[in-house]
UniProtKB/TrEMBL annotation:
Residues 11-78 form the Gingipain domain. Keywords: Signal. This is Gingipain domain-containing protein. Pfam families: Peptidase_C25. GO terms for molecular function: cysteine-type peptidase activity. It comes from marine sediment metagenome. InterPro entries: Caspase-like_dom_sf, Gingipain, Gingipain_N_sf.
């Protein structure tokens, strides 16, 4: 489980290639009172287990909402960047 040093209202989940391009949005949200941080998919994959990457992200979101004080989650990327499961 990932532990934040602070509480955040919003967690942005994105592949690491979007880290730099997401900084203006994160700064904007923080400036306007919505405490925001970025969690890369790679960080999530390193910390969470699951049958696939989609499930690892699901478990991170569950932890973020239930135990880390997060209220909102933003997913950044396309179907080619973020895993999805089709049933």
């Amino acid at each position: 489980m990932i532990h934040f040093s602070d509480e955040y209202d919003l967690v942005v989940i994105a592949p690491s290639e979007f880290t730099v391009s997401m900084q203006p949005l994160i700064q904007h949200k923080n400036t306007h009172g919505l405490t925001t941080t970025l969690m890369t998919t790679e960080e999530i994959y390193d910390e969470y287990s699951g049958r696939d990457e989609a499930e690892q992200i699901k478990y991170f979101i569950k932890d973020a909402l239930e135990t880390l004080g997060v209220e909102y989650v933003m997913l950044v990327g396309s179907i080619y960047k973020l895993p999805m499961r089709i049933s």
